Amino acid sequence: MSLMASHNPSAIPGARFMDPVVLARIGNLSLVARAVVDGFINGLHKAPYFGASVDFAEHRGYVPGDDVRRVDWRLWARTDRYYVKEYEAESNMNFSVLLDVSKSMDYGSIGITKLDYARMLTACLTNLVHHQRDRVGFVAFDSEVVEHVPPSAKHMETVLHVLDRLKAGRPGSLRAPLHKLAEHFGRRGVLVVISDFYEDPETVVDAVTPLRFRGNDLIVFHVLDPAELNFGFSNASAFEDLESGEQMPVVPEAMRKEYQSLVRAHIDALQQRFSEVRVDYTLLDTSQPLDHALFRFLTSREKRMRLR
Amino acid sequence: MSFLTPLFFVALAGLAIPVLIHLIQREKKQVVRFPSLMFVQRIPYRSVRRRRIHNWLLLMVRMAALALIVAAFARPFLERDEVTAAAGEGAREVVVLLDRSYSLGYADRWERARAAAYDAINGLGGGDRGSVVLFDSGAEIALRSAAAGERQRLTAAVAAAGGPTAAATRYAPALKVAGSILAESPLPRREVILISDFQRAGWRGEEGAQLPAGTTVTPVPITTGGEVANAAVTGVSFARSTFSSQERVAVTAVVVNRGTRPLAGGQLALEIGGRAIQTERLEVDANSSTSITFAPVTLTAEPMRGTVRAGADALAADNVFHFVLTPAQPVRVLVLDRAGGGGNALYLMRALAIGEAPRFEAIVRPPAAVSDDDLRRVSAVLVNDVEVPAALGRRLQKFVEGGGGLFVVLGPRATWSAEVDVLPASLQAPVDRTRGDAARVGALEYTHPVFEPFRSPRSGDFAAARIYGYRAVTPTQDAQVLARFDGGAPALLERRIGTGRVLLWTSTLDLAWSDFPLKPVYLPFVHRAMRHLAAYSEPAPWLTVGQVLEASFGSGRAQPASGVVLTPSGRRVGVGVDEEGAEVLELAEQGFYELRNRAGDAVTAVVASNVDTAESDLTPMDPKEIVAAATRDDGGRAAASAAPPTPEAQERSQRLWWYLLCVGILLLAADTLISNRLSEA
């Protein structure tokens, strides 16, 4: 199925990202995924930490700084000691997609740009998560944060709306915006980073890893166009860097093999480095169907959860 | 090779189109927008030269194909001689022109020239025919159109040429002879092999020497490499003087050095009668000349043979200059004047007493005292206003008929017997112009030898003389009026009688009827008239090889003579005008020719013969100049025969376009294959 064939303009903002066929296939996958993936399907995942929930868990001695509203006055009356009540944290979690909208994402050699692909992926994931009653948020960034939709159960429409009007326009860098966001996401949740990662693997990992410091689960999607993978150009041309505007003469057939090996080495390095820091990394080819990408992701998540 | 439609070559400009497209494409290079050049920049830069070379190959193939197709449309064709030359058709008629002028005597040129002639003869093919023409200032056919099988005869003809002659080089006669031989030849190919040292002096323009169309001229230059040194004695001049009643002549020789090095340490010798009497040191700068004057030589009554020799160099012929010294011959004039002191010949006598070249010896006689001996001794008679009896008139008529000159000056006393028919006009009554304006002499016949020196402006004004009286005359039918007075009346008339001439001046040559003797033109007029009547001419001290020796040479009077001539090489040749008809001798040798009487026992004259000094200038010319002139504008080649080609031959010569088109199309196909393969790759 062609991705372009799924393009169906609709009055509903972001509706075109939710291709019914794609969602249908994801729905089938969800039967398996529900059992293994926390947070994607409502009721199957465990809350990662305690919090203010309706299900009481235990009492704990008051320490200065605790909210006095959470002091169990009945127990104080009985024991004359201050205890605060601890509850099972609520099962709904925060799910945010961090989407790279730098200029390099606005490239597509097969009729769909990487940004479009990433938008559909974001919409699908958001939709999937929303069905679980989880809170969905969204952040778009290039060299700084461009759009920010805080996680909320009611922000599904907002996220889709923001996705719909996204435009790639400026050169991007990972480190500054991601480090900033790492401080922002105080509450633990699931973070999905979608980018083409045109930086050194070390720089990429260095930029992305802080997102895990607060206990977030981090999933990384590396989106690339087939032309970026295969370098299947034939004519000698001047190649222009989308972000810097720099041009240089290139004889593709003369340097194809070297390019392919360099890209392969880059991907391998990213995979290895992310694996080392326990970040899920998935390479997505925009020529591959979106459901296939999700399936690969969910499969890899399953493996990871089994290991836990 | 030529083209039928060369205008098609304009289409060659189309060759620029692929190149322009190539360049334009380079200018508007395709830009591919790519997300990041991060990886591309890490690959070492490789220029696009490999691709360029690849494209250049394709480009060259395309351009070659286009060029060939355009050339095919221009319809190339081979000219007919190329066709025949390529096919090697037909036998040749070869004329070997061998220069044997005396300049070939320089160093070893003659041997090399003969060797070249032998080579040309040996190069004749089986069906060829060959001729040998030897030329200098003239051309001589040594052997005409011999078959190639008769090579020995041709070789012998060259061998018999001996050595260089004393004559100069002239190419035109040789080419004309060659042209006549070739024109008569039935063979299809014609060739002239011109073996010469190609002196510039030997070619004087085209000279009408045209060879038949289609003739190939192959010049074989016989030149000497390096520096050419040659000195030549180009002439002598004489300064006559009289010392102690003996005539002496100082000889001055001019020596020209045509080499690029100065001539030093040479000697110039003067020989008189075969003996060296003086030797002078000779030094001439490069490309310059000098003159050396020898001490005066006393002349004898007999002609003296003189020679000037200038050292020795590679070309010996022009180092010697011969001449003949003869005592100056006076013009003897008999003046008939009135006896006693009544004569009016004062001005005439004074005029005749002046002058060295020629000197006049005048004898004055009254008409009654003229003897036959007087008439024999003189070459001209001047009748100065005297009565001429009939008997004297008849004797004068006979004198004139025998070649003598008669100058009749009229005046109030001049009367001639009507029986004597010697005057150019019948005499009438005198015309008096003392009243009113005096008569002036005008309407001169400047082409006549008498008035020729006065032809140019400001060289003598006859109108300045005032004529107060003249005799009216009626010219005879065979008389020519040489001058007239302003009224139209004849002033000077001439009549030829036999071999002599009669001049009639209708006024006086003294002051009686005019002031003419007081005018500057008087003296030259009298001298010119007497020289003309006496048929005086300077005896030439030398002649040049190639000139014709006249039998009357040295006889002093224009009378036919006959005898034998002893040439410098000792041959005896009969010459002169005899009963059998005219016979003349062309000078062919350098040295002294002796003219003897029929019996051969007395030398009547000696003639010095010298080489043409123009030949001593060895400056060569470009043989192509002669080739181009002799073969018109076809550059030495023209059609193989005058007959038009057959349609088959014409088609054959034009078939080239077909091959060009085929190759062009094949190249286009190759181009398609190459580009397909490239695009697949």
Relevant terms:
heterodimer, A: 308 residues, alpha/beta, Rossmann fold, 2 domains, six-stranded mixed β-sheet, two-stranded antiparallel sheet, 38% helix, elongated, disordered N terminus, B: 681 residues, Immunoglobulin-like, eight-stranded mixed β-sheet, 14 helices, 31% strand
- CATH class of the largest domain in chain B equals Alpha Beta
Overall number of structural domains of chain B: 5
Number of strands of chain A: 10
Poorly predicted ranges of chain B: 47-53, 555-560, 635-643
Low-confidence stretches of chain A: 1-21, 23-53
Query: What is Rg of chain A?
Result: 22 Å
Q: Which radius of gyration of chain B do the C-alpha atoms yield? A: 40 Å
Kindly report the name of the CATH homologous superfamily of the largest domain in chain A: von Willebrand factor, type A domain
Overview of the structural elements:
The complex is a heterodimer of chains A (308) and B (681). With 308 residues, chain A is of the alpha/beta class. Chain A has 2 domains: 12-43 and 92-307, Rossmann fold (3-Layer(aba) Sandwich), CATH 3.40.50.410; 51-87, no CATH class. Chain A contains 9 helices and 10 strands. Chain A has helices at residues 20-36, 73-79, 114-131, 156-164, 175-184, 201-208, 226-230, 252-276, 290-307; strands at 51-61, 83-87, 94-100, 135-141, 145-152, 189-195, 217-224, 237-241, 247-250, 280-285. In chain A, helix 3 runs antiparallel to helix 4. Residues 47-53, 555-560 and 635-643 of chain B have low confidence and may be disordered. The two termini of chain B are 43 Å apart. Chain B folds into 5 domains: 2-78 and 653-680, no CATH class; 84-226 and 619-630, Rossmann fold, CATH 3.40.50.410; 231-320, Immunoglobulin-like (Sandwich), CATH 2.60.40.10; 331-534, Class I glutamine amidotransferase (GATase) domain (Rossmann fold); 543-612, Immunoglobulin-like, CATH 2.60.40. Chain B is an alpha/beta fold. In chain B, the strands form 9 sheets. An 8-stranded mixed sheet of chain B has the order 18-17-19-21-28-27-26-24, with helices on both faces. Chain B has a 6-stranded mixed sheet with strand order 29-36-35-31-32-33, with no helix packed on it. In chain B, strands 6-5-4-7-8 form a 5-stranded mixed sheet, sandwiched between helices. Strand 8 of chain A pairs parallel with strand 2 (31-34) of chain B, so a sheet runs across the interface.
